[in-house]
UniProtKB/TrEMBL annotation:
InterPro entries: HATPase_C_sf
Domain of life (superkingdom): Bacteria
Provenance organism: Kiloniella spongiae
SUPFAM superfamilies, alphabetized: ATPase domain of HSP90 chaperone/DNA topoisomerase II/histidine kinase (SSF55874)
Full protein name: Uncharacterized protein
Length: 702
């Protein structure tokens, strides 16, 4: 039996924690001592020591290598331990009926080899022949570890124990974990003491009756300078409070109510003067050891995270059987979904990280909130700075807790609102389809229209007041810009005499950016003409017909049509190869909308034929995908006498016409074109009236 080093490194991920080797060394030292304690009548107190040596690289003080030596007074590296060491995914410790011993797969030794080139083990253990010494040396050339890789011999030493030495930090690990850090500070004696007292606090407290008057010493050395620190049993704080919390989540598919998961919150306070650990810590644990620091979930800024309260740092550690079962192999995270998946067919998912954080928030907030903190003061500040009321915060289901800043609360509120807007927008698209399928000949036509109108208004109401305000304000601004552009009152339209005017392109860009389509841009304002057009499937603005796209990103037009129609279309294209619709809108249901925009001083009667020409091209070359065509010619002036076959609207604001689309040489009927000729000012007025209706119904004033 051998341990394949290369295969083990390949199949075991590198831990994200920079302290993983320290954690694994100390955890193994404690486990080894617990084995000794279980087998001894009068065991010594637990002792472990770390010696950290920093070595200059390249003879300068700019880069340093690292050597770690860990000594313990445990049971040593006996035959069972040797067998477990060379067994991948060992369950050796799982079978030991010893309270407090860690359960693992033996991945710690793989982390040693991930981080360091060299590993040396020097151990003394008890056997039937007395004390024996056992050593193991692993370097960059070692490919596998087997029974014969260990050397065992008798010894004159009088106590069991193990010393593990790790040397020469691997460059890849240095680049990913320590490149932007001073490794002398990360692994200083004081830094390691602060890390261990927090990371192992729960385990040390739970095992203190077994470990006796224990001592964990740290020494860091660079050149001739050494620094020492120590943790002893008397340093352990009493638990401030221990709170069981039941977190409810989800709704199972059988309708049996919410599921529940039990957690225990252990709250400690460490004196700032005694343990200057530099920060408060809230963490999820597995087997009494910290795995995932979640402090930023509750203390939203580094200022709050690093601030002691009344001379104490808070250490809040969360345990549960669920966390024990889901910790990953590297012990730096949990195999838990980040967010709940409520869209599964059978909604009986395991609790998510998001649900754990939310479910524990109220209990943790009570532990970390100072009595002097005023939530109402923060609410008032948010209202004054951002105009967000307490009611808006409540409607967004956003909790304000100690550690929050006004900006972070506002960001969460806006994020909540945005999710609601996305859902409501999807509902609006469904309403558009209902409008297209309407049959005016049915008795319930107007009742259906009324129902859709109220549903539309209701959907908008569901968009929280803040988002609806933004929608109405934005659209009001667009209408005002269009009104000014039509009157040539925008500052950009104030051009010197003789310089070419750009009125038509300015107006065009207000509706939709020129030479773009809805694949390239999603922010446009064709709603000014008609609300439903905002949600059509494809919109092209001032693009060649050959560039129009259809379903699955395919081009809409092809050349494979009847030869006579082909000849006619080629002639039209040849005569007008530079012409193209200003804006063309398509739906996958076979509806095409052509919009021709003219400068306010260009007479529209000279361009009535443009709509028919585009309609012929679209019907003939759309592979049968287009069935209905609507055309709009919009401008500022027209000679009504030249509008043949057009009928004025009853209100006198524009003209309409419905005409057959016919190939002129064969008289082949291609379809129908419904067209309207409108003035810009009337389009603006109609859009403004729709906005006013929204404002009135929703009691908004802008």
């Amino acid at each position: 039996m051998t341990l394949d080093i290369r295969g083990s490194l390949k199949n075991t991920k590198v831990s994200h924690s920079p302290f993983v080797v320290i954690d694994e060394l100390l955890s193994n030292a404690i486990d080894s001592y617990l084995i000794l304690n279980n087998a001894s009548v009068n065991p010594p107190d637990f002792q472990a020591s770390f010696e950290i040596e920093f070595k200059s690289v390249g003879g300068t003080d700019d880069a340093f290598d690292l050597k770690i030596l860990c000594c313990d007074n445990g049971s040593g590296f006996g035959d069972d331990e040797k067998k477990a060491f060379i067994t991948k995914d060992t369950s050796y410790k799982d079978d030991l009926d010893i309270q407090g011993i860690g359960q693992c797969k033996g991945s710690g030794r793989i982390q040693y080899l991930h981080f360091f080139e060299n590993m040396n083990i020097d151990s003394v253990f008890a056997s039937e022949d007395g004390l024996q010494a056992r050593t193991l040396t692993v370097n960059a050339d070692t490919k596998e570890i087997g029974h014969d890789t260990f050397e065992t011999q008798s010894t004159t030493r009088t106590h069991t124990g193990t010393t593990v030495t790790l040397d020469v930090l691997k460059d890849r690990v240095f680049q990913t974990h320590f490149l932007n850090s001073d490794i002398r500070e990360v692994f200083s004696a004081m830094s390691l003491k602060n890390h261990v007292i927090v990371s192992f606090l729960q385990r040390l407290i739970s095992l203190q009756t077994f470990l006796g008057d224990f001592s964990i010493k740290f020494r860091s050395t660079h050149d001739d300078q050494s620094f020492d620190s120590e943790i002893i049993r008397a340093d352990l704080p009493d638990v401030t409070e221990k709170v069981p919390v039941v977190v409810s989540y989800g709704e199972p598919f059988d309708g049996g109510g919410e599921q529940r998961q039990m957690f225990t919150i252990n709250h400690y306070k460490l004196e700032q003067n005694k343990f200057n650990i530099g920060k408060n810590t809230i963490a999820l644990c597995a087997k009494n050891s910290i795995v995932k620091d979640i402090t930023p979930e509750y203390l939203k800024t580094k200022t709050y995270e690093n601030r002691a309260q009344d001379g104490y740092f808070h250490i809040i550690l969360i345990d549960s059987e669920f966390l024990d079962e889901t910790v990953n192999e590297q012990r730096d995270d949990f195999d838990i979904s980040p967010k709940s998946d409520k869209d599964t067919l059978f909604y009986a998912h395991a609790i998510s990280y998001e649900e754990i954080v939310e479910g524990l928030s109220d209990s943790i907030a009570k532990m970390i909130t100072p009595p002097t903190w005023d939530k109402d003061e923060l609410r008032q500040d948010i209202n004054e700075k951002f105009g967000i009321t307490s009611g808006m915060i409540v409607n967004a289901n956003v909790k304000i807790q100690y550690g929050d800043t006004d900006e972070k609360v506002v960001n969460r509120v806006l994020s909540s609102y945005q999710k609601k807007v996305v859902q409501d927008t999807a509902d609006l698209i469904d309403m558009k389809e209902a409008i297209q399928n309407a049959d005016p000949g049915k008795d319930d036509f107007r009742e259906m229209v009324q129902e859709i109108s109220w549903k539309y208004a209701s959907t908008l109401k569901n968009m929280d007041v803040l988002n609806l305000s933004q929608l109405v304000v934005r659209r009001s601004a667009i209408v005002e810009v269009l009104r000014l552009a039509v009157k040539k009152e925008l500052l950009i339209q104030d051009v010197p005499e003789g310089q070419r005017r750009r009125d038509e392109s300015i107006i065009h860009n207000i509706f939709f950016p020129m030479q773009k389509d809805s694949i390239e841009v999603t922010d446009h304002d064709v709603w000014v003409l008609s609300e439903e057009y905002q949600y059509f499937d494809y919109i092209a603005s001032d693009k060649q017909l050959s560039q129009y796209r259809w379903k699955d990103d395919e081009y809409l037009f092809d050349e494979d049509i009847d030869e006579e129609i082909q000849a006619l279309m080629n002639k039209i294209s040849s005569d007008n190869e530079a012409k193209r619709p200003d804006i063309a809108i398509f739906s996958h249901e076979g509806v095409a909308v052509i919009i021709e925009l003219k400068a306010p001083d260009v007479s529209m009667d000279n361009h009535v034929g443009d709509l028919m020409e585009y309609a012929q091209i679209i019907l003939a070359k759309s592979k049968g995908n287009i069935k209905k065509i609507y055309g709009y010619l919009i401008g500022g002036t027209v000679n009504p006498i030249r509008l043949q076959n057009y009928t004025a609207f009853a209100n006198g604001k524009g003209w309409f016409n419905s005409a057959p689309i016919t190939e002129h040489t064969t008289q082949t009927h291609l379809g129908e074109l419904y067209s309207e000729i409108l003035f810009y000012e009337d389009v603006v007025d109609r859009a403004e009236k729709r906005l006013e209706a929204f404002k009135e119904r929703l009691n908004l004033d802008f």
